[in-house]
Amino acid sequence: MEIERKYTIKELPANLGSYECHHIEQAYLNTEPVIRIRKQDEEYYLTYKGKGLLAREEYNLPLNAAAYYHLREKADGNIISKTRYLIPLGKPEFSSAASLSPEELGASLKIELDIFHEPFRPLIIAEVEFPTEAAANAFLPPSWLDEDVTFDYHYHNSYLSQQKP
Q1: What does the pLDDT look like over 88-134, one tens digit per residue?
Q2: Domain ranges, residue 100
Q3: Cis before 122 (ω within 30)
Q4: Number of structural domains the chain divides into
Q5: Which residues are within 8 A (CB) of 99 and not within 5 positions of it... i.e. 6 or more apart?
Q6: Is the distance from CB of 6 to CB of 126 less than 8 angstroms?
Q7: CATH number of the domain that 45 lies in?
C-alpha cells in the first residue's frame, strides 16, 4: 500500500546538491488503472497502481533494459523525465491532536523532491510517504513546503502524461 501526500514548494532547500538524487524517466501504458514503466538510474520497473489519492495499492516488478525500451515504444502520451532528491526528515512533526503509536511517531520519513524536466519544467512536487493513513493525516510539513495537492489529480504523473505540453 502506498500512502503519500504531495506538496508544491515555496523554495528549494539551499543545500539541495548535498542530497542523494536519482534520474527518473517514466511512461504510461495505461492510466486507469495506472500501469507505468520506470527507469531510475540503471534500474527498470513495471508498476501497477490502484485507485486512490492519499492511499492506494502499488505493485512493482523488475524489468530489464530491453523490456523497458520495448514497452516504452508502446507508451501513451508524454514520457516524464525528472530528477528526484531524497531529503530525510530528521524529526517529523505531527499535530498534537493525533494519537499516533510510537512506531508511527518514530517512522523514518523522507521528502522525495521531484524537479521535472521538459516539457513540464518548472514544475516541482514534493512527496512524503507514510506508514499509515493516520500518520499521513497528522503530518505537519516543513515550512519550505507549500500547498497540499494530495487530492488534486492534476499533480499526478499519470495525468501529466496525458496533457499537451
Answers
A1: 998 899 997 678 988 888 889 999 999 999 999 999 999 999 999 99
A2: 2-160
A3: yes
A4: 1
A5: none
A6: yes
A7: 2.40.320.10
